[in-house]
Every structure is written in structure tokens, then in C-alpha cells.
Automatic annotation (TrEMBL):
Source organism (scientific name): Geotalea daltonii (strain DSM 22248 / JCM 15807 / FRC-32) (Geobacter daltonii)
Family of the protein in this entry: Belongs to the homoserine dehydrogenase family.
Key word Lipid metabolism present: no
Gene Ontology annotations of biological process type: methionine biosynthetic process; threonine biosynthetic process
Active site, renumbered: K205 (proton donor)
GO molecular function, one term: NADP binding
Binding sites annotated in the UniProt record for L-homoserine: E190
Keyword Oxidoreductase: yes
PROSITE patterns referenced in this protein's UniProt entry, alphabetically: ACT, HOMOSER_DHGENASE
Name of the protein: Homoserine dehydrogenase
Record PANTHER family: HOMOSERINE DEHYDROGENASE
Binding site for NADPH: K105
């Protein structure tokens, strides 16, 4: 096989990175694969804007069917993002017998089961390394070198925007709104940052990690998701005083036939490796029964790292085609008929240590009322810190609990937040400091 023809849908930042990589390292790839990767068509609604890369005449088109229906194109790369029309394009390409490479975590988190079933029926591959962690090769490692392990936990810092904001808040003592505005000016955050800062992007990625680690279907709606917009500089400072850093953490844990699936701000010890994942970088920690803890670290987004992951998937499929193999493995690394439906543990049933910050009026008996309500709900206090009174006669009171149930914390706070000595809703951050 002298060459393998590729079609690309979506000529944005990552698409331009794919073109750049093939142009710069095409000869290297040919030496490694024994065949040439030839980008035959690129489909995008906008084919006039300069992307900073050169494209041969006739390659660009606004007609996506020139990619989806060309019998010569063996691999389709989908980089438009979102649910539709990405879903329709991918399913049409599969129906036409084409292998799929995508970076679209949202599409697979919501429509993955339908896409995987279509790919099984047609005997084609669906690979998506770039959908989680940008250029970090975590998904291929789970499917490949780590396939002999039963995984117990997966923890991830998976959104560079959130990690950049929290890093700046930690290092400079700045407030969330101030750092977010700066991140938007630098291009690290979108004009509408909701998808990132409210944890939705991270939840999409966690769904894929859980599916590969535990061999289960995951409904995005069952993933408990909280963002970082409620984190204040005072929380960052208190965390430092207690020996923690705050990160937006994706958490997956296996508990028999149930799994925990949650995304939320989390305090982790400052001496823990994930605490040193700063700026726009991502970090992912897996724990397997034979390999033990393994950590992956690198750039989680950007043109070149993501393009590297996309072309890695293309190369994987190309090797199969050279060997005459059309579908070497199922997308999730488990046989299609072996993927389970593990139950997601309700958030109220999870147990954790908790940081709780109360903004209370400085009056006698405040601590007694708070501690009494906590005790009434089976919550034991590990430590407490109180700072000086502010100008409005309120004082921040921080309590660190021993391990408690989420539902008990919620019940206690539903009572405490009604006390006339409490000025505003309490802020809660979960703690992960007892990892295997």
C-alpha cells in the first residue's frame, strides 16, 4: 500500500495543526509506517481565511460529502466539535466504511454508544486520543500497555483554563473574576467560559476515562459536576494554611459494581504530584492492581499537542491497513459485548473529608450552634480556624471535618445556613488526601 488517503472535517486551530504536522513530519511518518499519509480533502465552511499553513490547490472544499463519500478516503478526521452536525457526519462516514479519528469529547460522551455500535457493524475503528488530555497518550496506554490491570481510581486535572485560573489565584492571591478576565484576554478562556469553568468540559472527558478504565457506559447526566466560580481567594489562602492546593478534579472510583463519577473543586495535599500540575497543563493519575499508581502529565490543549495525538491515532489505523487489518480492537478496549452498565453511586452516598467556610456574625455562641448542627448530623470536626473580624462585623470560620457522608453534610448545611448568625451561604470543598 503506497499511500493512505485521509479526509479532514474542520479546519480550525487543531485542523491547521494536523496540516502543519503532516507537512513537517510526513517523511518521518512514512519511514515509520511504511506508507504515505496523503491528506486528500479538507472540508470547512470557511476556506478563505489564512490558517498559516499551505494547502495544495483543490484540497479545500465547503462540501463535506467530498470527504464523507469519496471511496478513496480511508480515514476521516473530525475536528468540528460539538454534537451536531458532528454526529451526523461521523455516522455517515462510518456507513461509508471509513475509519474515524476525532478529538470531540462532547460528541463521544453523549453519543458514543451509537457511534461505537455503528463502527462495530461496519468493522471500522473509532479512535479519540486527542479527546482527553490533548497530547498526553493516556487513552492508548489504558487500552494498550495497561490493559492487564483492573483500575480502582482515576483522577484528573483535565481542563487547562480552570487550572490556569486556579494556579494564578494560588500564586498571586487574585480573585476568580480578575484572573478569568485576564485568561480571556490571553486566549486561554473563551468569551463565554461556562463550558470550562463550570466543569462541563471536564465531565465529558471523565466519561471517556471511566468507560476505558472500567469498561462501562456512562451517562453524562449522572456525573455530578461543579465548577470553580465559587472559589474565592480566601479559600485559596485557607487551603494553603492547612497544607492543600485547590484543583478542579475529575474523580472516578470503582466500588464493586458501582462507580463514583464526579467533577468538583478539590483540596489535595501540597506534596502530592497532582498539586504540582500548574498553568494550562493537565495531569491524570491512574491506579491499577498490578502497575500501581501511574501519572501522566503534559499539555492538555493547543494546536500542536492535540494535532500530535490526532496523527498518532491516524498512524495506528494506518498500521492496521498496511497489515490488512480493518478493526483490531473495539473503541473502549473491551469487546463490544463485554461493556457493562455499572451503576453510578449517588453523590449523597460518597464519603470524603470536607472544608467548610462560614461567613458568620461575630457573636457569642456562634461556634456552639455550628458545631451542634454538625454533630446532630454525624459530622466530626478535625480542626477549625477563625480569622479577625472584618469591617462588617463578620468573621470567616473554617472547619475541616473527618470523613463524612455527602448527604449528612448537605443536611447539616441546610440547617446552618438558616441561622441568623450566618451572613451568606456556606462554601464547601471536598478533600482527597487518602489515596492508594
Amino acid at each position: 500500500m503506497n499511500e493512505i488517503k485521509i479526509g479532514l472535517i474542520g479546519f480550525g486551530t487543531i485542523g491547521a495543526g494536523v496540516v502543519k504536522l503532516l507537512d513537517k513530519n510526513g517523511s518521518l511518518l512514512e519511514e515509520k509506517l511504511g506508507t504515505r499519509l496523503f491528506l486528500k480533502k479538507i472540508a470547512d465552511l470557511d476556506i478563505s481565511t489564512d490558517r498559516g499553513v499551505e494547502v495544495e490547490p483543490g484540497v479545500l472544499t465547503t462540501n463535506v460529502d467530498e470527504v464523507l463519500c469519496d471511496p478513496e478516503i480511508a480515514i476521516v478526521i473530525e475536528l468540528i466539535g460539538g454534537y451536531e452536525p458532528a454526529r451526523s457526519f461521523v455516522l455517515k462516514a462510518i456507513a461509508n466504511g471509513k475509519h474515524i479519528v476525532t478529538a470531540n469529547k462532547a460528541l463521544l460522551a453523549v453519543h458514543g454508544e451509537e457511534i461505537y455500535a455503528a463502527a462495530e457493524k461496519k468493522g471500522v475503528e473509532v479512535l479519540f486520543e486527542a479527546a482527553v488530555g490533548g497530547g498526553i497518550p493516556v487513552l492508548s496506554s489504558i487500552r494498550g500497555n495497561l490493559a492487564g490491570n483492573n483500575f480502582s481510581t482515576v483522577l484528573g486535572i483535565l481542563n487547562g483554563t480552570c487550572n490556569y485560573i486556579l494556579t494564578r489565584m494560588t500564586q498571586e492571591g487574585a480573585d476568580f473574576a480578575e484572573v478569568l478576565k485576564n485568561a480571556q484576554q490571553l486566549g486561554y478562556a473563551e468569551a463565554d467560559p461556562t463550558f470550562d469553568v463550570e466543569g462541563i468540559d471536564t465531565a465529558h472527558k471523565l466519561c471517556l476515562l471511566l468507560s476505558l478504565c472500567f469498561g462501562t457506559r456512562v451517562d453524562l447526566k449522572e456525573v455530578s459536576t461543579e465548577g470553580i466560580s465559587s472559589i474565592a481567594a480566601v479559600d485559596i489562602n485557607f487551603a494553603r494554611d492547612f497544607g492543600y492546593k485547590i484543583k478542579l478534579l475529575a474523580i472516578g472510583k470503582r466500588d464493586g459494581e458501582r462507580i463514583e463519577a464526579r467533577v468538583h473543586p478539590t483540596m489535595i495535599p501540597v506534596n502530592y504530584p497532582l498539586a504540582d500540575v500548574n498553568g494550562v497543563f493537565n495531569g491524570i493519575r491512574l491506579s491499577g492492581d498490578f502497575v500501581g499508581p501511574v501519572m501522566f502529565y503534559g499539555r492538555g490543549a493547543g494546536m500542536e499537542p492535540t494535532a500530535s495525538a490526532v496523527i498518532g491515532d491516524v498512524a495506528d489505523i494506518a498500521r492496521n491497513l498496511v497489515a490488512g487489518i480493518s478493526r483490531r480492537s473495539a473503541p473502549l478496549g473491551f469487546g463490544d459485548d463485554k461493556v457493562k452498565n455499572l451503576t453510578i453511586k449517588p453523590m449523597g452516598e460518597i464519603t470524603s473529608k470536607y472544608y467548610i467556610r462560614f461567613n458568620a456574625f461575630d457573636r457569642p455562641g456562634v461556634l456552639a450552634k455550628i458545631s451542634g448542627a454538625l454533630g446532630d448530623n454525624n459530622i466530626s470536626i478535625e480542626s477549625m480556624m477563625q480569622t479577625a473580624r472584618s469591617t462588617n462585623c463578620t468573621v470567616p470560620i473554617v472547619i475541616m471535618t473527618h470523613e463524612a457522608r455527602e448527604m449528612d453534610i448537605r443536611k447539616a448545611l441546610s440547617v446552618i445556613d438558616t441561622f441568623d448568625v450566618i451572613k451568606e451561604k456556606s462554601n464547601v470543598i471536598r478533600i482527597e488526601d487518602n489515596l492508594e
